[in-house]
Amino acid sequence: MNFSLLMILLTPIFGGLLAYAGSALHKAVRNIFFLIFLILPFFELYQYANKTIDNFYYLTVLGQSLSLGINALSFMLSLLFSLIFLLAYIFLLFEFDKSEDSDLAILEFSFLEGAVFGVLFARDILSFFIFFEIIALIIFFLIGKGYEESHNAQLKYITWALIGANSMLAAVVFLFFKAGSFGYAEISGYLSTAPTPIVLITFVLFVIGFLIEASIMPLHVWAPITYAEAPDSVSVLLSSVVKKVGLYLFTIFVFSIFGLNLFSKIMPRVFEAPLIMYVLQWIGALTIIIGTFVAIVQEDAKKILAWSSIAQSGYILLGLSLGTPLGVAGGLLHIVNHSIFKGILFFVVGGVIYRTGTKNLSELGGLIKKMPISFISMLLAIIATAGIPPLNGFVSKYLIYEALIQNKEPLLLTIALLGGTGSFMYVYRLIHSIFLGQLPKKYEGVKEVPILMQVPMLVLSLLALLFGVLPGIPMYFVSKAEAFLGFDPIKYTLTGFPEQPGLHALNVPIISAALMGGFVVAALIFYLLPKTRSVHQLDNYYAGEILTEDVKYNYSFGFYSFFDDIIKPFNEWSIDRIYENFVGFVKTVGDYIRRIYTGNLETYVSLGIIILTIFSLIYIIGGVLW
Amino acid sequence: MELQETLEEGYVEILDHLRKRSLWMLHYCTACGAVELPPTITSRFDAERFGIAPFVTSRQSDILLVTGYINIKTLKRLVTVYEQMLPPKYVIGFGSCTINGGIYWDSYAVVKRLDLYLPVDVYIAGCMPTPMAVLEGFRTLMKLIDEGKANGWRKYIENYDYYKANQRKVLKW
Amino acid sequence: MVEKLVLILTPIFAFFVGIFLEGFKRKMVARIHRRYGPPLHQPLLDIIKLLSKKENISHGVMFDLGPVIFVGASILTVLFLPLPHFKQLTPYGDLIAFLYIMVIGSLGMALGAGESGNPNASIGIARALTLMLGYELPLIIAGNTLVVRYGTTDLYKFMTLQSGFNWNLFLLPLTAIAGFIATYGAMGEHPFDTVVAPQEVATGPMVEYGGKHLGLLMIGHAIQVYIETAFFTILFLGGASNIFTFILKQLGVIIVMTLFDTVFPRFRIENAVRYFWRWPTLIALLGLLIVYIGGK
């Protein structure tokens, strides 16, 4: 069968509408309907593997035909996003099982998936803009179904989304009037001969829009509260899909539409990259380090994940803006890997909230005995987040580091590596405060999450392990995407990377095998020796004191308080505060201006006369002078 | 069968022989006796040459060194600490207080005989025992371990009811 | 064939070298205190004693697995360090991969200690991770300096490039000093022993570990001593042309470390991190600057 791209785009939307109609019959009908329509895109996408389509016209606006297309990069991402949508949907069913919003949430969910496909397939700046704004709008609705503070989050999100939208809209309109066309190819052709200021202004306007969605540093203010307050399944989508859509557009615009050659032509090169890319590298690096350090001192499980997500997108931006085959491969691979492991973390934390009803880390603890499967999933995910072999986060970060070495940028490399160590701190705090330590009495009846809810975490955990041990699998797609972007794809094998310029050979299966070998030796020593006797958690060393249930004997609040002391001097420079000051300034100015509008007719008349006089004076004097 | 037993015995003997060279002590400093320990472990007398070193928690230690009188409140903690230690474990009663109450022989709040409540392997008499006496006590314990006679922890398990009953009498658990 | 045999025997070799270095250290500390000191094989006796405990306690599966992962990962890390004439597993992973492989053991131990449910253990781990953030900064910069200078990340090449007396200690003294302080911090010696700090947090992560768990941790620790000293030897002391020189150089590192270890008191954790981010980092940056400006 032949499926057109438009059909793929509309499939989830049809499914959502059908499911919404089906919900009148029974919940099960709705669920199954929608599940089918979420699985369908995989089959439909199958025929587009290894295909590049550039102009599938579907609509004509302003005399211009809008087109869809697919290439290696958008194929890879649409496959990944379909999977995450499917898993997030399964999770959403449980999360909203007691809520009355579930029908509406599913409908919005379906439109979101359609819009995401739309952005991925768009081949002109108008359709990408429209689909992008649909995403923002639906996310705005979905956030509102979350926790107590979600309405504040909604406001913050929509404000920033609008800033991004206006900035992109300006660029879109400007380019349309200059180039006379919406198509990516025509725009690219126009830009290659355009004057330097136009290129720079439109580029900055577009990038502001993308980087707001990707929550890169000075534009991240909406992200922590939104990620923390949105429903858990929506947080997964925000971090694993919407953020990556922003980064996908960034990739496409930088490498395919504007192009590195254009930048090298109009600006000096610093460290083997055009100046603007070098600036972006530093923005990425600052995002890594600040995001990591702020994540370390958070007290809320989802806020840790939010800041961690910000920091990880810094890695992606850093890798992509290096503009070398290695760096771009690392950035693209990290897009895939980060979607996977951050998805697991949000799913597990969501499951814990589903069972215990709190996301406050100081109230949790000791759940490992109650929720072992969630624990294992989270363990794999935190190993990946910290970038430790043999999980998938290692390979992509490794590529980014090696790319930095190849470009001879020791300072950026230092920051990136330090961010890796810092991520070790916050992931440990997360797993410790939730699963380790002492189990509070009130959670003694907590059970593991339902089996269907375990499916999303387990599927992604297996993927994380598979992509970690055999990095050749994701590299197959990544190298094709790289070839599409116009780079020489880096060499890879199923097990890692062979020796090549700028990259030391890496073989992850051998690392894993050696690890397993060491593990077996140690386990033999351990399990051949006398058996262990399990003791109660309160039979614990306390200098001889006898512990009782009613005294809390757990270290979970202010876990890194001493680290907080170290970075306290820098808290003064918070970016949030800069924006707040700006808001305060606008309010004050507005207050003064409002005093002119007294509601009295005489004031308005006299104001009119004054302004009229001023303009006439200018006119007269101007006429005399010129 | 016999061969296996001989082997096992030999194995235990070798282990005991090695084990006596590494004794970590938990000095439960209840009273004035603690003041004699710093000279014992520092340069003048150097207990570390026998492999004896002070350690911190009950899980890690082999010797419970009860340095001085035990009052009823302390006994509760002492029993908890002893039960948290991993066998083989040894108790050393340090000073006359642990033998018969010492100068607190007529106090209402002090437990006079330690071995009613915990199985004591070695007593070091004196008020205070000097570092030389302490080292002599350690050497005696090492000899007992080598000979397989330091079986206090086994005694505690075998006569658990007896010890528990004695503890209950004072502690009113 | 010989290479594979060496590969398999390396962990055992590393363990015994580590035991020797530890025993030597204890003896040396005793001599500085003007004591006689324990016998050289005392660490081995301690391990045998701990492993032969009649009964062990456990707080859960992760608590048991913590020491196992620690030892397993230490064995893995040893395999990625080159020996004189033997590349070991270095063709499959470089300096960057090595930095991350080194962390696996600490992760295992941190998870195990966390499950003990003792706040002292958690505080110890929190301190350990914060300290790690402290000493990693100078260590990373020092490593970067070497990478910039030699244009490679291969550990075996680092070793061969310094053959003769072209030690980095002589060629890049500033970097070597920063690297030494960072390695010293990684070993957790005074004044950076805030992690175990017996008087404050009752040996921190090890607080609930006893018996065979602690025995395994001590085996792992012996291997870690080998790893840290060998790492420093390879990066800054020019590796070695044969195994005895290699051990001798490690012994030299341990002797210098012990000289500092015996005389220092303990930093508070904030001050330790501030220290690492101030002096060693400045020294390392200066070294980096010199290499960067001076070129190859």
UniProtKB/TrEMBL annotation, chain A:
One of its GO terms (cellular component) is plasma membrane. The chain crosses the membrane at residues 6-25, 32-49, 69-92, 104-122, 128-145, 157-177, 189-212, 245-263, 275-297, 304-323, 335-354, 375-391, 411-431, 451-477, 508-529, 604-625. It holds the Pfam family Proton_antipo_M. It comes from the Bacteria. The keyword Glycoprotein does not apply. InterPro entries: ComplexI-like_HydComp, NADH_UbQ_OxRdtase, ND/Mrp_TM. GO terms for biological process: ATP synthesis coupled electron transport. It is found in: Cell membrane; Membrane. Keywords: Cell membrane, Membrane, Oxidoreductase, Transmembrane, Transmembrane helix. Its main location: membrane. The keyword Cell inner membrane does not apply. GO terms for molecular function: NADH dehydrogenase (ubiquinone) activity; oxidoreductase activity. Residues 122-417 form the NADH:quinone oxidoreductase/Mrp antiporter transmembrane domain. It is a multi-pass membrane protein. This is NADH:quinone oxidoreductase/Mrp antiporter transmembrane domain-containing protein.
UniProtKB/TrEMBL annotation, chain B:
Residues 29-140 form the NADH:ubiquinone oxidoreductase-like 20kDa subunit domain. One of its GO terms (biological process) is electron transport coupled proton transport. One of its GO terms (molecular function) is NADH dehydrogenase (ubiquinone) activity. Keywords: 4Fe-4S, Iron, Iron-sulfur, Metal-binding, NAD, Quinone. InterPro entries: NADH_UbQ_OxRdtase-like_20kDa, NADH_UQ_OxRdtase_20Kd_su. Pfam families: Oxidored_q6. Coiled coil: none annotated. The keyword Metal-binding applies. GO terms for cellular component: respiratory chain complex I. It comes from the Bacteria. Belongs to the complex I 20 kDa subunit family. NCBIfam families: nuoB_fam, PRK06411.1. This is NADH-quinone oxidoreductase subunit B. It comes from Caldisericum exile.
Automatic annotation (TrEMBL), chain C:
InterPro entries: ComplexI_Subunit1 (IPR052561), NADH_UbQ_OxRdtase_su1/FPO (IPR001694). The chain crosses the membrane at residues 6-24, 61-83, 95-113, 125-147, 167-187, 214-237, 243-264, 276-295. It is a multi-pass membrane protein. The keyword Phosphoprotein does not apply. It is found in: Membrane. GO terms for cellular component: plasma membrane. Keywords: Membrane, Transmembrane, Transmembrane helix. Signal peptide: none annotated. This is Proton-conducting membrane transporter.
